[in-house]
Amino acid sequence: MTDPDNPEKRPRKQRHLLLKIDSWIDSTIWNAGFRSAEIWEDITIFFRRFRVRGWKRIVFELGGEGLTLGAVGAVLMLTLAQPAFEATKEDWRNRGDYAVTFLDRYGNVIGHRGVIHQNSVPIDELPDALIKSVLATEDRRFFDHFGIDVVGLFRALVTNAQAGEVVQGGSTLTQQLAKNLFLSNERSIDRKITEAFLALWLEANLSKKEILSTYLDRAYMGGGTFGAAAAAQFYFGKSITDVNLAESAMLAGLFKAPAKYAPHVNLPAARGRANEVLTNLVQSGLMTEGQVIAARRNPATVVDRNQVESPDFFLDWAFDEVMRLSPRFHQHSLVVRTTIDMGLQSAAEDSVETSLREYGESYHAKQGAMVVIENGGAVRAMVGGRDYGESQFNRATKALRQPGSSFKVYTYSVAMESGMTPDTIVVDAPIYWGNWSPHNYANKYAGRVTIATAIAQSINTIPVRLAKEKLGIQPIRAMAKNLGVETPIRDDVTIPIGTSEVTVLDQATAYAVFPAGGYQSRRHGITQVLDYGGDVLYDFDHDEPPAKRVLSEKADTYMNQMLSRVPYVGTARKAALDNGILTAGKTGTTQAYRDAWFIGYTGNYTAAVWFGNDDYTSTNKMTGGSLPAMTFKRAMDYAHQGITLRQIPGTQPLPPDKTAKTVAATKPEEGSPPPLVRPRMLSIESTRILKDLGQTLKAAPPLAAQKVASAN
């Protein structure tokens, strides 16, 4: 037998085969290397023909570097353009195809959105004076630039530098349209870059006439109107095709600041602005002084209208809700009955504005937002900012702000669901989670405390300790989502103390679960959508599913018991309502005092209040228990006048002695504005009877057709 371990004893043929394979591998590798060297030498010899020297080499080097930098720049530009590409994916044209009339909860017309009933007039049929007035004031080089006016931008920079302040803008009309269609009024570098790309996209996809026509149709013109056609009808009571030069100048002056120059609010300011527009016409060479002198001497007059303010922030949100529901029906001319209560809306607006006017300067806070939801889910009031005319950005629905301690209710809800109670003891002491360690206010620690005390005193370490040692982060994120927070929650160990941004509407929606007994709040702003023939296309009560339980009855009871202590022994003592109305809620204050929150509720209403600054600068140590709590109380004291009071589930009414102390503690300070008074139309009992009658009629089956007896 052959020994396999002895190479000398292997068969001769096998040894020869292995030698051949080895030889073939060696020769192949050598030949490949040799051939590669020959090819490289041929390539080198070939490219020597193109070698340049002297000044030509400098040109080629600069060209090569230019191509490299150009490629890098192209990649960078594409990266910066991504937000613009995302914005243009939506059907932005179709948004204007809808003509929507909005009604309040009682059936009164409160505003319009979409193509606002004055049909869009073709650009060729608009008065020449209006077109010239707009171009002379907003963009004199409109027909000469490509969406971004480099010459105009440089001129604006020089003018502003000479004046030492911003006296001239550099944005083109196309850029303004891009902002109106796709963006908010946020002042940031990112937004300006996105705006520039969108302007280029509009110029590439629309003609100059289409851009100008869309701009005139979509711009906010004050008084709740959008578009020049609607503004002409609202202010002058005539068609846009019939306006004269003086009226055209007044309309053109509204684009800059519709709230400031709205003629039905401040006619002298509107006329002064119109005079500036006439001067622009002369300076731009579009008209002579002789052509505008008559308009200077005979300024436009406006139709006298009652001051009925339109809830514009709410209408913007309600219009978005209509767009969300629009796949359910094909009609585009709609009448929408909403949930808004104009009395509560006025009270909410007054409360936010009064707080900012009285205390905003001392607290260094310039903006506020508020949402009021009635038990059952109907949004009764929405304040998205201080002045819609100055900024249409809705801070109630779109501004993402850190909620601070007001987010802790989600952690404690999970704790209650997991078997803990308000009396469960947890240690308040320094805690580390990785490299992060939360701190209490004033860096004080109380040792062993109950969860009820922790939530009343807004202790930071307790929810973090519960999340780290007992609950985990994922159940907290899931609880926030189940309760109604629509904004995605970050997967971060810091979220138990409110570092993940949410909206005011998110917080109001989620907190409304507690007075609903643990069921979904079913937040909504639209009750019915009808066509102009009166046919019902959508009905919330019939077309939406019933509320699901998202919090157990026991957990909801525990949460209500704990949160109802906060306005009396905790951080929100300025929020407790008068007349013995039990109030519950939670304050929230973020890092460096950038945001201050109070979200509170009774058995009837839930309201979320936020104050801060658009540029995220810090306030002057404003906490959730100060201005937000005071604003909540002012609006909610009004809301609870003359209505049947409901009890918060799982709680007991305040005892008489506690009620007296609460009224004394919340008595307005001397010099503060008087409380709001709700006008009484019907007694509580009469209101109850009418509501019961309405429910009975609504539930009744339709009447069968009756035959009329013949006279013969």
UniProtKB/TrEMBL annotation:
Keywords: Carboxypeptidase, Cell shape, Cell wall biogenesis/degradation, Glycosyltransferase, Hydrolase, Membrane, Multifunctional enzyme, Peptidoglycan synthesis, Protease, Transferase, Transmembrane, Transmembrane helix. The chain crosses the membrane at residues 58-81. One of its GO terms (molecular function) is peptidoglycan glycosyltransferase activity. Residues 116-281 form the Glycosyl transferase family domain. Residues 647-681 are annotated as: Disordered. Residues 369-636 form the Penicillin-binding protein transpeptidase domain. It holds the Pfam family Transpeptidase. GO terms for biological process: cell wall organization; peptidoglycan biosynthetic process; proteolysis; regulation of cell shape. It catalyses: [GlcNAc-(1->4)-Mur2Ac(oyl-L-Ala-gamma-D-Glu-L-Lys-D-Ala-D-Ala)](n)-di-trans,octa-cis-undecaprenyl diphosphate + beta-D-GlcNAc-(1->4)-Mur2Ac(oyl-L-Ala-gamma-D-Glu-L-Lys-D-Ala-D-Ala)-di-trans,octa-cis-undecaprenyl diphosphate = [GlcNAc-(1->4)-Mur2Ac(oyl-L-Ala-gamma-D-Glu-L-Lys-D-Ala-D-Ala)](n+1)-di-trans,octa-cis-undecaprenyl diphosphate + di-trans,octa-cis-undecaprenyl diphosphate + H(+); Preferential cleavage: (Ac)2-L-Lys-D-Ala-|-D-Ala. Also transpeptidation of peptidyl-alanyl moieties that are N-acyl substituents of D-alanine. This is Cell wall biosynthesis penicillin-binding protein, 1A family. In the C-terminal section; belongs to the transpeptidase family. In the N-terminal section; belongs to the glycosyltransferase 51 family. Pathway: Cell wall biogenesis; peptidoglycan biosynthesis. GO terms for cellular component: outer membrane-bounded periplasmic space.
